[in-house]
Amino acid sequence: MSDPLGDMLTRIRNAQRARHAVCVAPASNLRANVLDVLKREGFIRGFSKEELRPGVAQLRIELKYNDGEPVIKEITRVSRPGRRVYSKIKELPRVYAGLGVSILSTPRGVMSDVEARTANVGGEVLCRVF
Question: Would you say the pTM of this structure is higher than 0.85?
Answer without folding.
Answer: yes
